[in-house]
């Protein structure tokens, strides 16, 4: 995923946290915020040490989240910032389960375009 699709700065993270709409399931918490310049969505991912003490375990989860979002990209709204926070239940799950749970929480957060038509 290109860097222009990422929320990287601490100030941007804090802005989404302050003006957020949040939803959650057993594996993820998702914060969303509508933006004025809707060129494309931006994604921020946070994985705490509760998910995995070793760095490679957290990177493993982050890569699977990023790949799932890449597969959802054509269906996603372009006017939002999204923060995904992984819960400890996301550790040691395979790609299909992570993708299924991420899709569920994105539907709850109304991240997909034409969701009411589905």
From TrEMBL:
Per the record, the domain of life is: Bacteria
Q: What GO cellular component entries does it have?
A: ribonuclease P complex
Q: Could you tell me which Gene3D superfamilies the record lists for this protein?
A: 3.30.230.10
Write down the top EC class of this protein: hydrolase
Q: Which InterPro entries match?
A: Ribosomal_Su5_D2-typ_SF (IPR020568), Ribsml_uS5_D2-typ_fold_subgr (IPR014721), RNase_P (IPR000100)
Q: What is this enzyme's EC? A: 3.1.26.5
Which reactions fall under this protein's catalytic activity? Endonucleolytic cleavage of RNA, removing 5'-extranucleotides from tRNA precursor
Picking any one GO molecular function of the record gives: ribonuclease P activity
GO biological process terms, alphabetically, are: tRNA 5'-leader removal
Keywords on this record?
Endonuclease, Hydrolase, Nuclease, RNA-binding, tRNA processing
Q: What job does this protein perform?
A: RNaseP catalyzes the removal of the 5'-leader sequence from pre-tRNA to produce the mature 5'-terminus. It can also cleave other RNA substrates such as 4.5S RNA. The protein component plays an auxiliary but essential role in vivo by binding to the 5'-leader sequence and broadening the substrate specificity of the ribozyme.
Q: Which family does it belong to?
A: Belongs to the RnpA family.
For this protein, the record's HAMAP family field holds:
RNase_P (MF_00227)
Q: How does it assemble?
A: Consists of a catalytic RNA component (M1 or rnpB) and a protein subunit.
What PANTHER family does the database record attribute to this sequence?
RIBONUCLEASE P PROTEIN COMPONENT
Under which name does UniProt file this protein?
A: Ribonuclease P protein component
């Amino acid at each position: 995923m290109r860097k222009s699709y990422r929320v990287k700065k601490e100030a941007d993270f804090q802005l989404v946290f302050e003006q957020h709409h949040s939803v959650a399931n057993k594996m993820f918490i998702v914060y969303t915020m509508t933006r004025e310049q809707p060129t494309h969505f931006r994604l921020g991912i946070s994985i705490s040490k509760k998910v995995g003490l070793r760095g490679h375990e957290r990177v493993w989860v982050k890569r699977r989240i990023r790949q799932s979002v890449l597969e959802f990209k054509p269906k996603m709204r372009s006017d939002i910032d999204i923060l995904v926070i992984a819960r400890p239940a996301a550790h040691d799950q395979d790609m299909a389960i992570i993708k299924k749970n991420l899709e569920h929480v994105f539907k709850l957060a109304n991240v997909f375009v034409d969701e009411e038509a589905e």
